[in-house]
Design a protein that fits this description.
It is a single chain. By secondary structure, the chain is an alpha/beta fold. It has one domain: 3-Layer(aba) Sandwich (Rossmann fold), CATH 3.40.50. Strands 3-2-1-4-5-7-6 form a 7-stranded mixed sheet, sandwiched between helices. It is globular, with a radius of gyration of 18 Å.
């Protein structure tokens, strides 16, 4: 479909990028069991709102909803969102998922609204010139104790026309042509560090082999986990490095 370039990669039983949530997001949720505890009737408690920007076919949205959060999933792909709604229904969490078909740059993010905001490989799908304004709205959208998870492709990625990726001989993703903004090393961290409201808990640059769509290929990624500067969560690490005995 000409108006939905991701139609083909989402129109699959197992969509591109898979259905498992980002590892760091999964670790965060596992360390915060209060977000997913159940009421006496067995239903998850409504413990806050979450925003998934560039939700795709729903891997992070579904994890957030299963953890008891009311999730707004925003993506420009109608097919991805349709698949997401069906998967939410199949998993019994449809009432916790709202989908909005929109360009993330034009989606209004209410200030201080969200307990969690995810932006998994979406800032790299918009021009670099548009990132600062969206970033400011994302940071402002966090609740006082909110958490932010961001993942981007870096110039280490074999699909990048610059940086180390430009000379890489590793196989390239079938969707690399839609990445328009490869982040130079350290750029995502500098972006977070320039935001006084954020407290960075984890930052990493790494290579990832991807087998979830098309022939095997390599990604260069940067990942960031942050909370607000006033928040002092009881959880750290991925996984928990030094768990409390008996906890």
């Amino acid at each position: 479909m000409p108006d939905d370039p991701f139609f083909a990669v989402y129109d699959r039983d197992v969509p591109a990028y898979g259905l498992a949530p980002s590892a760091e997001l999964a670790s965060f949720l596992s360390q915060c069991p209060q977000r997913g505890r159940s009421s006496g009737a067995g239903a998850a408690l409504d413990l806050g709102a979450a925003l998934d920007l560039g939700a795709g076919a729903g891997r992070d949205t579904l994890a957030l909803a299963a953890a008891g959060l009311q999730v707004t999933a925003v993506d420009a792909s109608a097919r991805g969102l349709a698949q997401l709604r069906q998967r939410a229904a199949d998993r019994g969490c449809a009432e916790r998922v709202e989908t909005i078909e929109a360009d993330v740059r034009r989606f209004e993010i209410p200030a201080s609204r969200y307990a969690a905001i995810c932006a998994t490989t979406v800032l790299d799908h918009i021009p670099a010139a548009d990132v600062p304004a969206l970033w400011q709205r994302i940071v402002a959208g966090l609740a006082d104790d909110g958490v932010l998870y961001v993942e981007v492709h870096t110039t280490d990625d074999p699909g990048s026309p610059t940086g180390a990726g430009a000379s890489s001989r590793a196989p390239v993703s079938e969707t690399a042509r839609w990445v328009v903004n490869y982040f130079p090393p350290g750029e995502l961290l500098r972006l977070a560090a320039s935001s006084p409201r954020l407290r960075v808990l984890r930052y990493e640059e790494r290579y990832e082999w991807d087998y979830t769509h098309g022939p095997e290929h390599l990604h260069g990624k940067a990942i960031l986990l942050a909370t607000t500067s006033a928040s002092h969560p009881e959880w750290y690490g991925h996984p928990v490095a030094f768990p409390r005995r008996g906890a």
